[in-house]
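Re: How this chain folds, sequence and tokenised backbone to follow
Notation: Tokens come from a learned vocabulary of local backbone shapes, not from coordinates.
Start of record: The labelled sequence and token lines come straight after this line.
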Amino acid sequence: MPDNDRDALIHNAASENISLGDEDATLEILRGVVFDLWRTVGNLTRLQPSKRPRYRVSIFGSARIRPEMPLYQDVKRLAFELANRNCDIITGGGPGLMQAANEGEMQADPERAKTRSVGIRVDLDFEQETNAFVEEVYVHRTFFSRLHHFVMASDAFVVVPGGIGTTLELMMIWQLLQVRKLHDHPLILVGDMWERLVDWVKTDMVDADLQTASPGDEAIPTCVSTVDEALALLIETHEQWKSR
């Protein structure tokens, strides 16, 4: 239905009662209410503090990595070092590398006095419980609002090895940086798997005959091999953030 017709139907509906048996009118009212809610939420999320009290780093990674694995210990150490520098740690709140990051923050600030360990979850029937190291937990009903929350809550993003969910999070942030809906938010990719993804973007999007991405889009994320390299970059961007 064209927008003008829908607006007229909703306007008319506001001045008279609509029978639930009138399915078309009922659905249009519901659609209009949902769109109005989205617009309201969008406007409210434009209200941002001039500066957060602490630098906030989101760490995205696999839920399948176990504590005895070296990668788990690396991510825990990364979060520990960031928390020692008064940075908050944000994850998806689940097990694996999310737990490693939340655990690292807790070890650096066991009294929970200087930093925060945050988990942003999604409500799924088969999803694991929130890990024990999360201090503040938020549960969303949809992936869309959850990803939006990550964007609103974070100053920097670190992507360590992960699967489909981690890739979704990475690509969401990458696109927002590409279209300049995010500014001055480092996107740091740790590990060879992400470097190969960036190479694929360059080869099959930027340099391909169709050129479905612009030159420079492949340079938006910064690829590093180790969490120590990621930490060095984050220390630098944290200092820049403090100076602003």
Q: What stands out?
A: The two ends are 48 Å apart (CA to CA). The longest strand covers residues 117-122. The longest helix spans residues 23-44. The chain has a mean pLDDT of 90.
